[in-house]
User: Fold Methylglyoxal synthase from Thalassotalea euphylliae.
Amino acid sequence: MEYKTIQSNAQKSVALVAHDNMKASLIEWTNTHIEQLRNHQLYATGTTGALIAKQTGLSVSQLISGPLGGDQQIGALITEQKIDVLIFFWDPLEAQPHDPDVKALLRLAAVWNIPVACNIASADLLITSSLFGQVFERKVPDYQRYISSRT
Ligand SMILES: O=C(CO)COP(=O)(O)O
Assistant:
């Protein structure tokens, strides 16, 4: 796929989310890339955001805690095209009470074609990509066409 760059060195909106057993990994990753992340607008679910702000000093817009609706808030921001990248360290070894919300968030990220990283290796690749700091034409659902095809 060829990317048509609209803007370089762009500020991105990055959503950071981690389940409890994965929070230490996300904070470690955040610290590793702190200088780059400083240039972007950060959003996070409640507890993840509070921990990142406390342990890294980064400024983070904190939403509701995940089990109380934070995943859904991030999903809603994705549909409004206000999130460019999702870093979501979900726990592959422990069931979550809000599993439907987790699945819904991952689904919306796929629908709206935003890059998602679910572990340190993929998050490293994503943030070091030359595409990370660029705004490029991205295939998103054609909402008007979708509605007219159904009405
Ligand atoms: O549960 C979460 C994501 O599904 C994360 O929520 P917290 O950041 O509030 O722990």
